[in-house]
Automatic annotation (TrEMBL):
Residues 312-369 form the HTH luxR-type domain. It comes from Sphingobium agri. InterPro entries: Sig_transdc_resp-reg_C-effctor, Tscrpt_reg_LuxR_C, WH-like_DNA-bd_sf. SUPFAM superfamilies: C-terminal effector domain of the bipartite response regulators. The lineage of its organism: Bacteria, Pseudomonadati, Pseudomonadota, Alphaproteobacteria, Sphingomonadales. This is Helix-turn-helix transcriptional regulator. Transmembrane segments: none annotated. It comes from the Bacteria.
Amino acid sequence: MEANLSAQILPALYGCCDRPENWRPLLDQICASLGVRSAAVQIYRQDGGHLIQRWQERDSYSHANAAQHDRWINNPDNPRLAIVPRDRLEAQLAVRTDEQRFDSTSPQLQETRHRLAQIGLRGGSGVLFEFEPSRWFSLILHRQISDTADGDGKDAAFLSDIAPHLLALSRLSATVQAAYSAQATLASIVDRLRPGVIFCTGSGEVRWHNRAAAAMLANGAPLTLGHGQLRGVSAESRQRLARLLSPARDDDMVTAAFGDLDDSMVQAIALPNGAFKADVAEGWDDDRDGVALILIDPSQAPMLSVGHVTSLFGLTPAEAQLAVALSQGVSLNAYADRRGISVGTVRIQMKRILEKTDSRRQADLVGKLYGSVIAQLHGSMH
């Protein structure tokens, strides 16, 4: 039974790598097939000689009784969370019971038995191993307190069968989840950039875009973004877009302008995916013929924050406020009227700003502000 179960669950087991929510139905299947009452999978971070739980999933019964389980056994006081010498044995994937993990007369064993009894369980079989430095994986099965020990051998045989797969799964899951986390972080950062960014296929099918791209291509823009497709609104723009999406094999960058300065203009740079993915195995990546498009609206003034201008250029808050106003086209006289100060005071502030930013004239200052890192960001910057 357990050997058959081991083979049966392998596809579902590896399916948990990128879909952790699949663990609960899998644990339910294990409980039903083996006749165990509770099953839990957990990830721990090691801190000194103790394990700190970072993630877990339980079968449906244990989830429904989570309050009681957390009160008695699934908490930082759990004696099992202390690393003992047996955990570092060479046979790291060995299946062990509490009796095998602790000395038979140890207070940890007695305490664990007492805690489990409060929720109607008795010591079960489990695997605990370090799959990355200071990161541990555990899968443990518990039977009802009324069960005899006859089923323990079956549970241990099942865990022994799948233990090598659990090790492979934990390492693969860590890689996949780290990639997802990095992707989410990168997407969040790119979503705050002033330039529009679009990842699309050679046919214009959009895989991802940031907020700036959506705003730039809305309401009368020479390019449109809708229903997952990037399109030109005129024959000329469609022709230029086709050139961007199908660069020559030796091109590492292609540029094009859409519209005109009197209307709505978008400047675009296409970066072919193939130029940056040489290390991806051929056949595993469907987007090698795709491109990353960087879009700029030259008529759109950057959004500047007084606070960030202050810290970036070493200005006082009053000087930074004037610098931001100048970048928005406000004259010195108009700024003096707005602030209720003399033009002489504003000129003194202006002189100090030019000195601190190493600018010779106002146009140099505005150019440095527009070219600064804060000018390229949205979000909390304004």
